[in-house]
Every structure is written in C-alpha cells, then in structure tokens.
Amino acid sequence: MEIYVDLGRCICCHACEVACEREHGEPNISVEAVRYRAxxxxxxxxxxxxxxxxxxxxxxxxxxxxxxxxxxxKCTSCGLCLLVCPFGAIDMDSTSMVHxxxxxxxxxxxxxxxxxxxxxxxxxxxxxxxxELRRRAARRIAQSYAAAVGRDRA
Amino acid sequence: xxxxxxxxxxxxxxxxxxxxxxxxGEDEPGIEYMLDHPTNQGSLCPKGNAALEILNHPDxxxxxxxxxxxxxxRISWEEVLAKVAExxxxxxxxxxxxxLGFLGSAKCTNExxxxxxxxxxxxxxxxxxCCARRCHSPTIPALNRAFGSACMxxxxxxxxxxxxxxxxxxxxxxxxxxxxxxxxxxxxxGAFVIVADPRLTPTTWLADLHLQINLGTDVALxxxxxxxxxxxxxxxxxxxxxxxxxxxxxxxKVKEYTPETVAETTGVSPGAIVxxxxxxxxxxxxxxxxxxxxTQHSHGTNNVAACADLALICGQLGRSGAGxxxxxxxxxxxxxxxMGVLADFYPGSRSVNDIEAIHFIEEAWGAGTLPVGMGxxxxxxxxxxxxxxxxFLYVMGEDVINSDSSSSRGRRELENLDFMVVQDIxxxxxxxxxxxVLPAAAWAExxxxxxxxxxxxxxxxxxxxPPGEARSDLWTILEVASRLGLDFDYAGPEEVLAEIGRVxxxxxxxxxxxxxARGGVIWPCPYPEHPGTPILHQEEFxxxxxxxxxxxxxxxxxxxxxxxxxxxxxxxxxxxxHYNAGSMTRRSFSLMRRSPELFVEVNPDDADRWSIIDGDxxxxxxxxxxxxxxxxxxxxxxxxxxxxxxxFPETNQLTSDVIDPEARIPEFKVAACRxxxxxxx
Lengths: 154, 681
Known about the structure:
The structure holds two protein chains of two kinds. Chain A has a two-stranded antiparallel sheet with strand order 1-8. Chain A is α+β, with helices and mostly antiparallel strands. Chain A has one domain: Alpha-Beta Plaits (2-Layer Sandwich). Chain A has helices at 15-24, 51-55, 80-84, 111-115, 126-148; strands at residues 2-5, 29-34, 38-43, 61-63, 68-70, 91-92, 98-99, 121-124. Chain B is of the alpha/beta class. Chain B is 30% helix and 18% strand. Chain B has 24 helices and 28 strands. In chain B, the strands form seven sheets. Chain B has a seven-stranded mixed sheet with strand order 5-4-18-17-16-6-7. A six-stranded mixed sheet of chain B has the order 24-26-25-28-23-27. The A-B interface holds A 9, 11-15, 17-19, 21-22, 35-39, 111, 114-119, 136, 139-140, 142-144, 146-147, 153-154 and B 30-31, 33, 35, 40, 42-46, 48-50, 163, 173-174, 177-178, 180-181, 184, 187-190, 200-203, 205-206, 284, 576-577, 590-591, 594, 634-636.
C-alpha cells in the first residue's frame, strides 16, 4: 500500500504537509512547486526494493509485505537511510530522530489523503491506484468525445 | 481506550463553510475529518488543518484591558463594561448618536452581528458596517440591481455539474482550495475551464484557456465577449425575452467592443476572446466564478454588473451547473450582510432608505424611531474620525488598520477618536490603538450560526472553554446593551436566532436544530418545513416583476496609471498559507514556518532594470507609503506588474484609497509604484 499522486490535480496548497505535521509532529510529505508551473507532493513510496531498509544497520527500517516499517527503538540515528532514499522522503528532526511516512497506521486512510482538497493523493496498492487514474483519464476523454460527436454528456 | 469525543464544527477561515470535528480527549484537542460534509467531503486546506493552533495561543487576550500612560492594565469586566457604557452615553449627550461608529465582524456569528447592529441602531446611530465593505460591497448593489438578490446562486458542489467554468478575478486554488475539488470533478466530466487573471497561479494551472489580462480591464474583456456573442447570434433569446429587461441597451453598448479593440486594452488576443465567448455561451451549462479581482477596483460595481450581464444574455442561470459564484471571503461575511451589519441595509437586505421597511423593524424591535439613510462605512469612519465627526468607535473582531487600504492614513485618523473599544481574540494593531480591549471567545469556544458563501447556515457548538476571562461577543454586547438601558432579554443564541427568523424572511424556517444537522440549511428557508433553496432564480428573479435587469456598463481604466515617478503597477492578493490581515495565520506555527515573510513578485525584465536579484530585500514605494519585502523574481506576472500579498501589515500602507463611487470599496488591486534595492536600514 502506498500514496499515489494524480499530478494534474495538485494545486500546491500544502494541506497534506500541515495535516501530516499535526499528526506526526514533523511532516513526512512535502510539496515542491517548480517555477510556479506545476507542483509535486513527495513522500515515502514504500519501495519494493527499499534502499533505506537495505542499508539500515540496526534493522529499524524493514521492508514488510506492503510497506517499509520503521521502529524508533532500534534506530541509532546513523543517517544512512537519508543518504540513500532516492526521493529524500526520510528526514531527521531536531532531536536526530528519523521520521518517514508510516501511512497513519491508526487510520484506514492516511491524513494527507483525507485532507487533500483536490483528490490528488490516492491511497491503495498499485492496482487500485492505476485503476483510479485510468478511470479518471478515460472519463475525461469519453466525455469530451461524446460532446464532440453531439451526444449528451453523462 | 481514551475517552474521546468528536464535536462538529465549521472552519473559521474562508467562506466555504467546510465542516470538521474537534477531537477532545486526554491530549491537546485534535482535528478529525468529516467525510460526509456536503461541501468539503472531509478535505481541508492548510489553514483548516491549522485552525486549532490559534486557540490556545499564548498571545490570546485573556482579560479586559485599559490603556494607561504606563501601558495596558488589567481591569474587571464590571469596570470595563461600565466604562464603555459611560463613554457611549457621553458621546450621544455631547455630539449626538451620529458620532458613534460600530464595526461588526464577518468572523462573528449571525446572532452576535444581529445584536450588534440592533444595539447601534437602537442607540440612534446609522454608522454600522463591517469588512464586507472591503471584499464584496460591489456585489451587493450590482447583483441587487440585476437579480434582486446579491449572493452566490448555486452550491459549491454544483460546480461539478457545469460544462464550462469561467473564472475571472479569483485565485480559488489558493483562497478557496476546496472549490478546486469541484472544478476538477467538472473537468473529469469534460468541462472547459477558462481563467482570466493577470498572474499565473495554481488556479490557472487548471485552465484549458488562460486569459492573462491587463490589470483592471475586466469590463473590456466581458463586453468584448458579449460583443462576440451577440454578433454571432449566440445569445439566449428565449431567456432574454422571457426573464430579463434591458437587452436592447446592451446591444448598443457592446457594439464598439470588438475583439480587436478589446485585445488592445486587455492584452488578450482576439482569438482567445472569441474562443472564451463561444465556449461560455454555447455550453449546455456554464458558470462564472469571481472574487476580489473583480470587486476590489474603483469600478468594482461595473465589473460585477458586466459579469451578471454575460450570465443573463446567455441564460446561464437558474439551473444546476449554471450560475454566478461570487466567492465570499470570511466565514460569516454572507451572514453579517444578511444581519444588516452594513451602512446601507437593515437586516434582511432592507434598504436604509425604505421607510416602510424601517417601520417593520421598529415594530419588530419594539423600538421608537430608528435612523433612516445611509450611514458611514468602514472606509468613511476613519475619515470622519480624522475630521472630528466620529468620536467613538466600537470594533468587534476586526483589524481595521491592517485591512484598510492606505493604512498609515487610517492610523492617523483613528488616533483622533475620543474613545475606541476593540473586542478581539488577539492584540491586533487596531487593538493597540484602543482605549479598552475586551477579550473575546474564538469560534470553537462559543455557539451560534455562521452562513457560508453558498448561503448554508450552520450551527457551531462550544467545544472548548475560552482562555482566562474571555467571553463570547454575544455575552459582551448584551452586557453593554443592558448598561445602556436597552431591553435585550435573550437566554442565548437560540433565542436571537428565533428573532432573526422573525425579521429576516429567508431565515424564517431556520432553527438551532436544523442548523445543527449535518450541512445545516441553505437559505432562503421561509418556513420550518421548507427544505432550503440551493439554486436561486429557477423560476423567476427576486427583482421587480420577477425579471432580471441587464445593466450595460462602460470600461473605465483603473484610477492610477504608471508614471515617470511610479513606473510600475502593484497588485495585491493572497497566498494559500495565510488569511486576510494575518492576525490568525501569522500566529499559526505550521503556516508561518512555510510562509514566514512578506514578498514581492517581480518580473525578470523589471528585476534586471532595477538591478534586483531573487532574494534581495527591496523597498516598494507608492504615493501613500513604502514597504520592505523579499524579492521573488518570477514570470508569474508580466513586465510592469508587481504582486504582494496583503497578509503582512506593510502591504496596505501602499494600496490606493481611491474608492468605487457606489460600493465605496478601495482599489486594492491597482496602485502605481516603484521598486528599488533597500538602502541600509
């Protein structure tokens, strides 16, 4: 399970960051805008082959069935995970404690996904997410096509 | 298991009225998402997510304070209430009731605003107004004239049913982010989105067609679109003939606004104007979404009239997916207007010049003679204070100084008052100038109703206790009123709401119980069993004979043009992480850490010319003042235009004080200015 992004919907509002920060103390997702032309929310992708878990010497980070888990008690704050994460999605707070997205285990759906005003964030496994993205794309195209050939929109 | 309880509430920031829960338990109060709320479906923007950060803030006002030569001194409620009453009596005795001014608040409940204006008017003062003057005051006369009713016609979620969404002067992706949810749903259905804005914003990211118009040229663009529509015969004749008057005058007026002429004024290509016009007119259902980019101009009323005209000639009103959306700013600005906290209206949009309507109110209130005629507005009260005509000002929940244009002038003028009372949750710059400051409860610490932009009336429950001795504004006003001999006998906000129902016809069917239900009620709700009215003007308009009036208007340039001394134009607006004058968001840690300081956006060509590089501290000057800000060099706006958000106090020292002649709103959106690197502090 992970958080997917429908990029065309992100409006760079930072709601996901603020929601995550409220729930976790520090934000585990961040939104970057590029020259005010587009923005991208970045958080842990729960990689299949997770470099952070591979390099973690203490086993604090571990690849589970569907996500990368983190056990704070085992963490030595060595910072190797920060160096290898290709997305910069792991960070340390001011007390040198590592933090990353834990998919809000106490919730059915993570807070960032619930709060996203534009439904740009999707939660699910790869199949759920790509299915929803395909559904949205197909719907847009089908509606425009229907209008273009003179059929009523649904 | 921790004993948690969820108290439903309504977001205190913008006017969308999003619902969420305040989660109470052993820890600090938290937020839980309300997935079944009809407007936001659980989602919240960053400000909504940070809403609780201001409640327990160390800066909260906790006790009544009196100004002394040695600074602020804590006094008792008994003492402060007696002092306020005594000053009001003294002012009336020495200078008459017209020397009293009352500024209500679009952040306070309907019940508080209703009682506030009732007290002012029963004291004989006409001078009642609120910050609606600075946001949608042009909407009121223009839409009242056009439709007979000055509000948003359809619910926010109905945007999803539209086939063409024309946005002009609204950056909703930053200022009303939940609107983007419904616009994207419409796009999923194939809707065409047009955004007219001088800047590139996250809202323009959603556009299929971005019309990057020159500042303040909205009427030219709208008339140009109408020119195309009537030239190509795309107007809706059936709607025009059956439901409107005045079309012939418009035909005459828009003749000269050919796409080619308009292209020169607006900077938008003739082809884009034609494309926008055709898309809007031909789509089965179109909406117009507008906001401060339309209203905050010296010709704001004309701008709104032109939007209404476009909707009327195309018949894009009165059904699902077709309507006009003036996106309101504050969480209760619609409600404050409905309650008559406006210099031109008694409750229920009853004109202050309508003698019969005033007799009705006199009877309802058991009052003697109530004042007739237009009072001073939020903009003219400071001027009158400067001239010595206004002696006493009572401000409930507003930072007048930082919200007003040309703010250093306002500050000088307010210093001239004999006495000023400010009731607020923080020591704002306005409160700093007061003689006494009364600590107020914030939205989640009191109860009552708020009316959102979509006319949705929702009850807010008291989830938490106010800090120290802070009290609800309703309690405070009732205490003041009782010391002035006014017979205000209300057991609580429910009883005030019941009286509102008797005085404001569209609220007649709204009780606490109905407002407390999920999503509340959308007015007009004329009787208790009435389901509410999400879509206005379906059968007929509220205007005389049920027919809307098409009011053709001419394009007028903004009041200030660039000159040798002031070669650039400054426009102002908002960013997603802040809110209005910033007294709340600038005290919110998670928002401030993301947007910590005032900035000015400069086009790279202008930056080159004035030797500014990204990140420089620069000084911006206008005829009224100067401000320092961090430069952001960006192509978001074209050469010659600077942008600054007004959430930091400096910005409004620069803005223009030229006002719209009818709505009396200042032209926040255009000021001639110059920029330069800051020379030593």
